[in-house]
UniProtKB/TrEMBL annotation:
It comes from the Bacteria. Gene3D superfamilies: MetI-like (1.10.3720.10). Belongs to the binding-protein-dependent transport system permease family. It is a multi-pass membrane protein. This is Carbohydrate ABC transporter permease. The lineage of its organism: Bacteria, Bacillati, Actinomycetota, Actinomycetes, Actinomycetales. Residues 48-264 form the ABC transmembrane type-1 domain.
Length: 272
């Protein structure tokens, strides 16, 4: 823990307080100057806004889709064979690596790709739409890709929770005359609440740190419309070679992640 966690974090914090680290043999202590520069950067706040939109929309969609599909697979109105087939299909996105997902969707969303062909055939759109290159469509496009890739994790977890709810609760509710909506809001949701809260907090942490998918689809462009805190920090370090500024940005991102992590730990303690 000391070698792999404490030392690297301490080094990054020290870099953030220095000027011209790594690229120069004569670094000087500048205090919080790098932090003031980062917090005063318009690109940093663009990255914060994009990260917030990307994360919140993804987590909400993951939760809704995961709950809908898990309830569908847990339904007694669906045959066992059908449930087995659809479980396999629904979980496929989760089995693919980020690199494969990025390449797959870049091909599908290409101006000459399958998505444009299908939409044109159905009369829903015309022309070669630049999904990942259009400033107004790039962020919704990468958010959709992240939703598609991430919902199976919610689905599997919520399905396990649904299968653990005692049927006696539903039978007692039916005796009392409760309909499907009342059983859902007063039995299903309360029973799933610990899982939902835990999954939502974990997904907030994971999604806010997403880098590979963004980098391999849009690279943070076009015009910074998909710039995230992760890509912003990476570009500072390895494109502009501003390792001091990148370290300050990384520390700020770490602080934001720690707030989410503390929230997750507190929810776990409350549920226990």
């Amino acid at each position: 823990m000391t070698v792999l966690l404490v030392v690297p974090i301490a080094m990054v914090i020290s870099y953030s307080l220095m000027d011209s680290v790594i690229t120069s043999n004569h670094s000087t202590f500048v205090g919080l100057e790098n932090y003031f520069e980062i917090l005063g950067s318009a690109k940093f706040w663009t990255a914060v806004k994009n990260t917030a939109i990307f994360t919140i929309v993804s987590v909400v969609a993951h939760l809704i889709l995961g709950l809908v599909f898990s309830m569908l697979l847990n339904s007694g109105h669906v045959s066992r064979m059908t449930r087995t087939v659809f479980r396999t299909l629904f979980v496929l996105p989760w089995l693919l690596t980020v690199a494969i997902i990025a390449i797959l969707w870049r091909l599908l969303l290409d101006p000459n790709g399958v998505v444009n062909f299908v939409l044109d055939s159905l009369g829903l759109a015309s022309g070669q739409i630049e999904w990942l290159s259009n400033p107004s469509m790039a962020l919704p496009a990468v958010t959709f890709i992240n939703i598609w890739a991430g919902y199976p994790f919610f689905m599997i977890s919520l399905l396990a929770g649904l299968q653990g709810i005692p049927m006696d609760l539903y039978e007692a509710a039916e005796v009392d005359g409760a309909g499907g909506a009342r059983k859902f809001w007063h039995i299903t949701i309360p029973q799933l609440k610990p899982i939902i809260v835990s999954m939502a907090m974990l997904d907030l942490i994971w999604t806010s740190q997403q880098f590979a998918l963004i980098w391999m689809t849009t690279g943070g462009g076009p015009l910074n419309r998909t710039e995230m805190l992760s890509t912003f920090t990476y570009k500072l370090a390895f494109s502009q070679y501003d390792f001091s500024g990148a370290s300050a940005s990384a520390v700020v991102t770490l602080a934001l992640s720690m707030i989410l992590a503390i929230g997750y730990v507190r929810t776990q303690e409350a549920s226990n």
